[in-house]
Specification:
mainly beta; Methylamine Dehydrogenase, Chain H; four-stranded antiparallel sheet; 1 helix; 2% helix; repeat; U4 snRNA binding; WD40_PAC1
């Protein structure tokens, strides 16, 4: 399964797959998806869909958008037109990002109303409405190992570590640059942020909990907005995508860019109203493919 975002789209469709190239700097694109019509079509949100997330384990997908709602969808539903199985409300503005906790039991929504909402994925009932950001919450990333921990990034240039069990911010970390993308490493020890100036930063979760305020490392990977960051299963390589339709592979250990993939033959997405950028990508579980 791939993580995905669909900034600015009311209809979400899966595009091309890029096999990792043998020659640095080149993207070998191949259409591994069937050319037959898509199985399911849905109008997700009025005004645009900002992000989607897939429950793992489980059969649900969550989408969020400009209409202030989070919609839950059954990914096994068959039909050319299906609707959400549940709508999660309560937000006072657009929902910029959505995620499932690692136990698949809770849904997190990052709001333009400066709040982070937590819902029960089974019943749809609201568990927490957490505040603390001084500006819109841009993105949220749950811990891959601890269902009680999540991190958010806001337009107030602040990262917040949240205790989802108690519903409050356990720690706030100032961020010198405006964040636009967020992820946590598979071991739960590192936070990765992507920024509007094209840079990425690494943050130590344990140091942040202890009161540290600076990143472990920082690198300027792009000349334009970082639209996505993700970590490979080995926790050794960062995958980052930018508005300039390029994807960079960055080695955590050497702090160097090992490969840059550029797609000139096709469009990887469209720029969204929430500033998510044009290129959205993620690594397959076995590390063989990049989905964009």
């Amino acid at each position: 399964a791939f993580d995905a975002e669909a900034a600015g789209f009311e209809t979400v469709t899966l595009k091309d797959l890029m096999r990792l190239p043998s020659d640095a700097g080149r993207a070998d694109t191949e259409r591994t998806l069937p050319s037959a019509p898509y199985r399911t079509h849905a109008i997700a949100h009025k005004g645009g869909c900002c992000a989607i997330a897939v429950q793992n384990p489980g059969h649900l997908a969550a989408s969020c958008g400009m209409d202030r709602d989070v919609a839950l969808w059954d990914v096994n539903a068959v039909g050319r037109s299906v609707g959400p199985v549940m709508s999660l409300g309560g937000m006072m503005g657009a929902v910029n990002d959505v995620a499932f906790t690692c136990d698949a039991a809770q849904v997190l929504g990052a709001g333009a109303d400066k709040s982070l909402h937590v819902w029960d994925a089974t019943t749809g009932s609201a568990r927490h409405t957490m505040t603390g950001h001084a500006g819109p919450v841009v993105c949220v990333a749950p811990s891959p190992l601890d269902a009680r921990l999540a991190v958010s990034a806001g337009e107030d240039r602040c990262l917040k570590l949240w205790d989802l069990g108690r519903g409050y911010a356990a720690r706030s970390v100032p961020c010198a640059k405006m964040p636009n993308a967020l992820a946590m490493s598979r071991d739960g020890n590192t936070i990765v942020t992507g920024h509007l100036d094209g840079s990425v930063c690494l943050w130590d979760v344990r140091q942040a909990r202890g009161g540290a305020t600076g990143p472990l490392a920082e690198a300027r990977l792009f000349t334009q907005i970082v639209s996505y960051v993700g970590v490979t299963p080995s926790d050794s390589v960062l995958l980052a995508a930018s508005k300039d339709n390029s994807v960079a592979l960055w080695d955590f250990r050497t702090l160097t860019t090992t490969r840059t993939l550029r797609a000139h033959a096709f469009t990887l997405g469209t720029i969204g109203s929430m500033g998510k950028g044009r290129c959205v990508a993620d690594m397959s579980p076995d590390g063989r493919f990049v989905a964009a």
